[in-house]
Amino acid sequence: MKHPLAAHYDGHDEIQAEIDRRAARPVQEVPTGTVERHHPRRLRLVVDEIRIETASTRTFRLRREDGKPLPPFLAGQYVNVFTDGTSRPYAIASGPAEHGRHYDLTVRRVPGGRISNLLIDTLAVGDRLTTTGPMGTFHHNPLFHGDDLVFLAGGSGVVPAMSMLRAIAASDSSRRLHLVYGSRDTEDVIFRDELDALASAHPDRVRVDHVVGGLLTAATIGELAGPLRGRMVYVCGPQAMYPYALEQLTRLGHPRRRVRFEANGAPSRPEAQPHWPVGADGTERVTVTACGTRFRTPRNRPLLDALEDHGVRPEAACRSGECGMCLVRVVSGEVHTAEEARLRTADERFGYTHSCVAYPLTDVEIEV
C-alpha cells in the first residue's frame, strides 16, 4: 500500500514507476530466521557473572537464555536494556570475537540515575534482562577511519574503547589505538589492570595513557598522543566533555570530520541550547496529549521520558537523538528539538521529531 505522504516527495512518479517495474520480477526472499538471528528485535538474556570494577561500577556478563549464539556486533556498539517501564543503552565492553558466548555490559552508578542504580543494587546472577540486538554507529570503519586511531575517554566512556582494544588484541590486523583516559582519581579507573596488560602485551598496536584528576586539554592531548594529522579521534564520556574536547581538538588544528562522538543521552539542560526560546521557563508545565492520554509535564523533561511515565511507550534505543526509533509526529503545538537530533529533511517538513531529545514548549498533541 502506498504511503499517504509519498506523493509529496520530489521525483515520486519516477520512483513509483521503478518500484512497479521491480515488483513484476520474481523476488527471492531472505529467510526470516536469518534476519532474526543477526538483527533480533529483542534478546532474552540471563546474568551469568557479575564483576566489581570500581566502587561505583559493575560488569554484568550476559548469556542468551535459550543457549543459542548471540548476534554479532562491531566494537563500540551497544544494546538497549529494558527495565522498570523504560530503557537505557549500554555499550558492550566485550570484544566482538566473544559475541557468540556472551556480552559484557559495564554499568557505572549515576547519582540519582534510575536505571544504573537499579541494575547495580538489585541485579543478581541468574536474573533475566530483555535487550535489543546490538546497534549504533560508534564503531571503527576501516574504509573511512584508517588504522591509526586515538580515543579520548572520560569515566565510563572507556567501555566502547575497551571493546575496540579487545578486538585489536584478538586480531592480527595492523590497527593501532592510543587511548587517553581521564579519571577523577586512581580508585575511579575502570579496567585499569586489563588496560595496562593490553598495552604491555601489544606495545606496537595498543597504547594507554591515564590522566588522573586533570582535564584532557589541548596541551595534554598533544603531548601524549602526538601529531593528530590524518588520525581518527573517538570521544566518549560525560556530556560536558564533548564540547570541551571539540574545542581542544580544534585548537590543535584537527578537523571536525576526523572526530567521532558517541551519542550519550539527552541534554541535561536543553534551556542552554542557542535555539531554546528566550524567556521560556524550563520548569513550567505544559499539557501533552498522546494515544488518548493527557498529562502535564515540565518543558525541560524529554518527551520520551514523560510519555513513558504515563504508560505511553514508543520504541526506543539510543535515547540520544541518533537512531530515530522513537520518532513521533507533532500534530499540534510546538516542541524544542535538541541539537543532538539527527532529523531528516522529511521529518522537519512533516512535523516528525525524535521524542528522546524533544521538549514540549507549549501544549502539544503527539501521534505515536
Largest sheet: 6 strands, antiparallel
Shape estimate: globular
So how many helices? 10
Low-confidence stretches: none
Q: What is the terminal-to-terminal distance? A: 20 Å
DSSP, total strands:
18
Structure report:
This protein has 368 residues and is α/β, with parallel strands linked by helices. Helix content is 23%, strand content 28%. It is built from ten helices and 18 strands. The strands form four sheets. A six-stranded antiparallel beta sheet has the order 4-3-6-1-2-5. The protein has a five-stranded parallel beta sheet with strand order 9-8-7-10-11, sandwiched between helices. A five-stranded mixed beta sheet has the order 13-12-18-14-16. The model has no long low-confidence stretch (mean pLDDT 92).
List the helices and strands and how they pair.
Elements lengths: L11 H12 L8 H7 L4 E12 L2 E8 L13 E6 L2 E6 L11 E6 L5 H9 L5 E4 L10 H4 L2 E7 L3 H12 L6 E8 L8 H10 L4 E7 L5 H8 L6 E5 L4 H11 L7 E3 L23 E6 L2 E6 L4 H7 L17 E6 L2 E3 L7 H6 L1 E3 L3 E3 L3 E4 L1
In short:
The protein is an alpha/beta fold and 368 residues long. It has helices at 12-23, 32-38, 114-122, 142-145, 158-169, 192-201, 218-225, 241-251, 303-309, 345-350, and strands spanning 43-54, 57-64, 78-83, 86-91, 103-108, 128-131, 148-154, 176-183, 206-212, 232-236, 259-261, 285-290, 293-298, 327-332, 335-337, 352-354, 358-360, 364-367.
